[in-house]
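Consider this today:
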Amino acid sequence: MIKERIYSIIQTLLIGVFIYAAINIGGIISNYNEGDKIYYESQEKYFVSEQEDGDKSNENQKYTLDIAQLKKINPDIIAWIYINDTKVSYPLLQCDNNEKYLKQTYNNIKSDFGSIFVDFRNSSDMSDRNSIIYGHNTKNGSMFGSLKKYKDVNYFKQHPKIYIVYADKTYEYEIFSVYTTLTSGPAYINIFTNDDDFKNFLSAITELSVITTGIKPTANDKVITLSTCTSRAQDERFVVHARLANIIQNETPVTIDKP
């Protein structure tokens, strides 16, 4: 009789755990679906591809970016960040702190997806020597959830460039280093006293790379650092560093070269 009661209690607990887990998983999936929908709609409305679906024959990708309408929705939107043939295609925001857009979308909806945003300490025009850009590491690969794929050198070869599109120009960046680090690591330094200080920074972050890119930045370069969490430790991050390679004066539509 006692054993039956124990088994009954255990069974009840297991059922409770199962129901709790199912509710949590359902909530996560619902949040992902909602976040994906929000940002998919933003891509459809404000950053529209001129290329036919599935057409890989063109040498160039053409897009129409409506930055004026985006700024009407939220003046904190400064540009658009894009990596060809990936899920990274989002409004890029910046405000006076690094907390607001952790849980708020570009159109001011509360969401675990948050937004892709620039460190408040940086200039909005990416003129600093190291501009830091944050995004969540989602399980479905949205936001910056796909960055971890850069651990594979073949993925890097297929997606070697990052684009930041402003109203009048597009910045084209070449990725040169990818690795896992801590929030106390050199990746998050954005103030340099002199060229030697910056050279030491570049040397440190290049040597940490888990893949060989063949690109060596110099003291004349402007660097962006894409940062996302790893889900393994609270202070652990995965970062992708890229250097400014080209500034394209925007046409209508914006033209972005395929890698």
About this structure: The first strand starts at residue 47 and ends at 49. The chain has one domain: 39-257.
